[in-house]
Design goal:
- This protein is mainly β.
- 0% of the residues lie in helices and 46% in strands.
- Strands 2, 4, 5, 6, 9, 10 and 11 form a 7-stranded mixed beta sheet that branches. It has a 4-stranded antiparallel beta sheet with strand order 1-3-8-7, with no helix packed on it.
- The termini are far apart.
C-alpha cells in the first residue's frame, strides 16, 4: 500500500512562487513513477508533470513548461513541484499520484495511488 501526503499549498499573488511537497510511504519509493495533476472548479483533472523511473526524466504540460519544476529526493521519499511565475489560471487543487511502472504517463487513470490534494489559489 502506498500513501501520499501533499503539502505546501496556499494563497499567493500572481507572479509569486510556491513549492509543493508529496511525501510517500513505501520502501521502494525510488522505483515509483510520480505525477502531479490539478483540478480547477468545474474542470476535469489535468496533467501537470511527471518524473519517470528509472531515468528520472521529467515531462510537463505545455501550460506550465518553463515555470514549474518537478524533482524527487529518494532519501526523503518526497517529490516536489516548484511553481514560479504563478498565474490565476494555476488556481486548482493539486494532487500527487504514484504508479509502479517504467516511464511516466500523462493519463490520470493509470495512477492507482493518490494523495488528498492541496489547494493553490492565485487571485486575479
Amino acid at each position: 500500500q502506498v500513501q501520499l501526503v501533499e503539502s505546501g499549498g496556499g494563497l499567493v499573488q500572481a507572479g509569486g512562487s510556491l513549492r509543493l511537497s508529496c511525501a510517500a510511504s513505501g520502501r521502494t519509493f525510488s522505483t515509483y513513477v510520480m505525477g502531479w495533476f490539478r483540478q480547477a472548479p468545474g474542470k476535469d483533472r489535468e496533467f501537470v508533470a511527471h518524473i519517470s523511473w528509472p531515468s528520472d526524466s521529467t515531462r510537463y504540460a505545455d501550460s506550465v513548461k518553463g515555470r514549474f519544476t518537478m524533482s524527487r529526493d529518494n532519501d526523503k521519499r518526497t517529490v516536489y513541484l516548484q511553481m514560479n511565475s504563478l498565474k490565476p489560471e494555476d488556481t486548482a487543487v493539486y494532487y500527487c499520484a504514484a504508479r509502479f511502472s517504467v516511464g511516466g504517463s500523462i493519463t490520470s487513470n493509470v495512477y492507482p495511488y493518490w494523495g488528498q490534494g492541496t489547494q493553490v489559489t492565485v487571485p486575479s
